[in-house]
Fold each of these.
Amino acid sequence: MSVRGNPGYPKNSEKFPDRFSKEDAGVDDLEQIRWPKGFRCPACSGESAWRTERKLWHGQSCRHQASVTAGTVFEDSRKSLRRWFHVMWLMAHQTGLSAQGLCDVDEFGSYQTAPVWLHKLRSVMIPQGRERLHGRGEVDEAYIGGKREGSRAKKSEVAFIKPNP
């Protein structure tokens, strides 16, 4: 089940804090997405497990502990899943969210964090096995650089528009 198919999915920015008022709301949603048929131990594929106080899954047969965030962009993050979900919500609902725009909206402590988060999230949005662009294409023109005393800005082709058949 996708998060969008969830009846509790926030439809606007006012409803987002209501849906994700606690950290556990994000954990439960991520578990449902990651293990839609229930938890399966990544070490032994066992289904018998319990949840520890630290929100880890403890496999009954192999005693392996697994986190819902292990192997995801959220792994080792000191920020809450609620905050990650908010940034993802912003990315899905705003065209061209910039790092500075994210800092302005989400009040990141430092500017350096915002581009790292956006890069991580954008990297997992790329479809696996996608065909890379190749061949001739049509491009738009742009001026790169600024005017310097005694020199002119160079005209360069920079934006890929569409491939030619």
Amino acid sequence: MRSKGYFNLACLLTAVACAPLPQPPPATPATAPSVATPSVSPTQAAAPSPAPANSITANIEARSGSTAKGTVTLTEGKPGLHVVVLVSGIAPGKHGLHFHENGDCSAPDATSAKGHFNPAHHDHGLPTSSARHLGDLGNIEVGVDGHGRLEVDLADASLTPGAENSLHGKAVILHAKVDDGSQPAGNAGERIGCAVIP
């Protein structure tokens, strides 16, 4: 009986010792987290910015005992020039405004700027006239607060130094009264502001 028991025990131990050991599951290769890569279309890639327009600004200084001040900005366009005039410190109403042939504001009354810039030798006129001085800007309207703004396009003007139609080196004159369109220069009264176009 005892030998039979030993036999059974030996068989049991042999079965346990010879049984295959459980294997761990195969390792799964680690994957790196996905990172979204932004796509850039050809149209989004560094397009060159447009070249800035050629633009100059001149300061209007008081003349003839006035308190006028302001700026004149000229920007080259297609065609001609875009002109923006800002003024302050003057009486409400309309005031004549012109480019004059000499860029000289040294005289106390700005007469050093001479006459209207008129390279084509036309008669004086308002902006509605078919023929006028190239320097004729008409009138700037000033409000009760003493501030005024005028924007006008001069298709025949340029900033090219030495060109017949160039406003380079000319003067802008602000007048005390309205330009009424009469000959020879609009009867606009004293020159109360002056700026030299560089």
Amino acid sequence: MPDTKFFPDEFFTVVECDQCGLGFVNPRPSFAEMRKYYPREYYQGEQTATFARYLDKRFAAEARYLREIEQRKGPKKMLDVGCCNGEFPRFMKARGWDVEGVEVSEASQLILDFPVYTNEFHEISIDEPAYDAVTAWAVLEHVHDPMAYFRKAARVLKKNGLFVFLVTNFHSMASRHLFAEDIPRHLYFFTRETVRRYLEKNGLALVTEDNGRSVYKLAPDHWLAYLLHTRVQGEPFKYADVPLSSRQFRRVHGLKKGFAAALRYAVYSPVSVVERLLLPAVEATQILRRTYGISTYVARKL
């Protein structure tokens, strides 16, 4: 599939290790080459009240995974890996935490109100148990050496500290079949089995896996088109088979949002209209079966 955000003419291939099940882009752009796939606009959120409310809701959901530590007595220190523009550490700082961050991108906003390491997590100068919590929200799929990140998290966490991280679920229809991954920014794709293996190798014990959409979403868009291609027609579902979204359709045809545009889109892709109507039920079923596209893991330092 191509880079759907910035370079639609550049295509990438995802493969799967037939021994451990880890998925990965192959070949992967080098660390230096990846800079072009993270332009400044990648880090720019909407400057609206609606988007601000969304962030508050998301950060509150993320903070719930740290409730156990918040209930402990004494000061609490957190390191947020891939802290982007620093919004989540600031949210936790307002709750009384001592916060630090890691952010390697030069395109992200300059952070001056708390310490930020600008080299990769496994290369930062801290190398002893210093943090009650290490968080990585949708980060580990972006890095070139995820095992090094797990290893570093285990080294810098205090005993009984928590490593909380969110990754896409390679077992999900959205990740594996529906071209929903943000390639090539997503370089690696995890199953719960690969996560367990990475944790066990580094002295971290899995506490919980929350498979769902409480923090981020990876909806199974085009699920019906996929089933029609593979189960009814007996054909593989290729990227070229993915219909345009309603927004893309309006942009291509120069249409404004409204009834007329919606009607034209329904004629173009009636399958997409049916998909959208049934999507809430499909998502709910996937969450119950733990096959949704996002999983948040909480692991404890032994």
